[in-house]
Amino acid sequence: MRKINVLVVDDSAFMRKVITDLINLDDELNVIDTARNGEEAVKKIKDLSPDIVTMDVEMPIMDGITALKIIMKQSPLPVVMLSSLTKEGADATLNALELGAVDFITKPKNIFKMNNDDIKKQLIEKIKMASKVNVNLNNINNFNDVKRISSFNVVSRENSQIKKIVAIGTSTGGPRALQHVIPYLPKNIAASILIVQHMPAGFTKSLADRLNNLSQINVKEAEDNEILLPGYAYIAPGGYHLKIIKTANKHKIKLTKDTPVSGHRPSVDVMMNSLAQLKLNNLIGVIMTGMGSDGAEGMKNIKLQNGYTIAQDEETCVVYGMPKSAIKLGCIDEVVPIQDIAATITKIVGV
């Protein structure tokens, strides 16, 4: 079987050695070469034609973001970014995902912990998954394809009541996919939107701020004990499960540090199941691009409460795992491309 050839790009000789050793432990992977900065990486991609690149963000001579722009323009191929756990690292990583990077891995604060089992597992899984992504398909998505909300004659008055609660779950490819959905929801939508995006702590705040700057509705990182409001989207903070509880006819956010579910905290299933357990009859579940099956059980439980369920289609997913798992359970009302999800939500919420 032909191995997946990987180019490792990092300015630290220690990190290049550790990452190379971790990758080469897997029988399906092979580090074809390493590069010390973005400039070297661009040249070696031309010379060696690797299948995939792991790219550090901060490097001398040419940083990872600049190199990524050149790679996506000249010779697009899957790139997995390696990022620091800082606000600057989170912002740069989100920028990289917008530019076409498939996924990212966070470096531990102590670089000597880089070779622990959890990071090794993440690195191998994400390289294998990313190597299968069609980056050319990923790059043709653009905001001009998104159906405009104005075509649905949304009323202009302010809504003070929540007609629907929309629960959205996503993972790999999600930050970019959410930019095709949230900014296209109308300001006065009579719904609260809850979002679980698999991301570490700190990154979800940067994601919320970026989406808020693009959107008509208010987008924020969810806080414990917040009461749900219409026209707001709440993103579960990394490291916390987001649940909804009901008190005095209000719906309130509860953040917990309960055990990760299927390796995830926040977990899509935890959020959606908490809504279904309240036996609400005004739920919309949306499952989007992502690896694995988180959210499939939650979508089924929302459907069992007579909620409406939407899955992103295979053609516009970076990774079709999560929608495919939900569809297999027979609980999806509508499968739509990413550019139609905002319009579908708006139509169901009603005006």
Characterise this structure.
The strands form 3 sheets. The protein has a 7-stranded parallel sheet, with helices on both faces. A 5-stranded parallel sheet has the order 2-1-3-4-5, sandwiched between helices. Strands 10-11 form a two-stranded antiparallel sheet. It is elongated. It contains 12 helices and 14 strands. The protein has 2 domains: 4-134, 3-Layer(aba) Sandwich (Rossmann fold); 164-349, Methylesterase CheB, C-terminal domain (Rossmann fold, 3-Layer(aba) Sandwich). It starts with a strand and ends with a helix. The model is unreliable at 149-157 (pLDDT under 50). The chain has helices at 13-24, 38-48, 64-74, 87-99, 117-131, 135-140, 174-178, 203-214, 268-277, 296-304, 321-328, 338-349; strands spanning 4-9, 29-35, 52-56, 79-83, 103-106, 164-170, 191-197, 218-221, 232-235, 241-247, 250-256, 283-287, 308-312, 334-336. It is of the alpha/beta class and 351 residues long. Helix 2 (38-48) packs parallel to helix 3 (64-74), helix 3 runs parallel beside helix 4 and helix 10 (296-304) packs across helix 11.
